[in-house]
Amino acid sequence: MPDTFVTLKEGSKGAEVTKLQQRLKTLKYYAGAIDGNFGPQTKASVINFQKKNAVKDDGIVGYETEAAIQRALWVSQRQTIQEGSKGNDVEKLQTLLQQADEINKDHGVVWNVPGGFGIRTDGIFGANTKAAVIKFQQAEKLKADGVVGALTWKALSGIITFDLEPIVIVNNDVFDLA
């Protein structure tokens, strides 16, 4: 990630626009040429992304849009996991649910889960992890089935960025995008 952030808008050109176009293409918002020119098609793709991701839909890629793109990319890299799953994504899930408990303690109730999620990080999606996921899904008003798919990962991404300004997300590479 760059140490400084460049706001991108129609008329911008260069490597940062190329990266933007590539990321929007990865997220299936951009079908045009990856040419480093922020033209009408790139702007329309940005606006479409902004509308679908609750960001001001002005066609300008500022901190909030960049942070939303990073969250969306992070979510797109997650696998659907459920009871019986093992590995890195399960560890990420368990860590995020533990962080949600800490946020509730530090900031008052953000996720209304009496008793908290109360799980440990072991990389194994067992009955306790499933119960914690169901509590989280209920608190987020998602389908509470214990399966962690795209919508649940998207809600979980809010734990990563809770109480952070978008500049922190962008400059400190919060989502481990490489």
Explain what this protein looks like in three dimensions.
This protein has helices spanning 15-26, 40-52, 63-76, 88-107, 127-139, 150-161, 166-171. Helices cover 51% and strands 0% of the residues. By secondary structure, it is mostly helical. The N and C termini lie close together (9 Å). Helix 3 crosses helix 6 and helix 4 (88-107) packs across helix 6. It is elongated.
Total number of strands: 0
> Compute the gyration radius: what is it?
18 Å
Quickly count the helices.
Answer: 7
Could you list the spans in which at least 5 consecutive residues all have pLDDT below 50? none
Largest sheet: number of strands, sense, barrel closure:
none
State mean pLDDT (0 to 100 scale): 86
Please state the structural category: mainly alpha
Categorize the overall geometry: elongated
Percent of sequence in beta strands: under 5%
Helix content: 40-55%
Order of helices and strands: HHHHHHH
What brief labels describe this structure?
Peptidoglycan-binding protein; Peptidoglycan-bd-like; PGBDSf; mainly alpha; elongated; PGBD-like_sf; 51% helix
What is shown here, in short?
This protein is mostly helical and 178 residues long.
Secondary-structure blueprint of this entry?
Elements: H1 15-26, H2 40-52, H3 63-76, H4 88-107, H5 127-139, H6 150-161, H7 166-171
Helix pairs in contact: 3-6, 4-6
Domain Peptidoglycan binding-like: 14-69, 87-156
Protein name: Peptidoglycan-binding protein
Pfam families: PG_binding_1
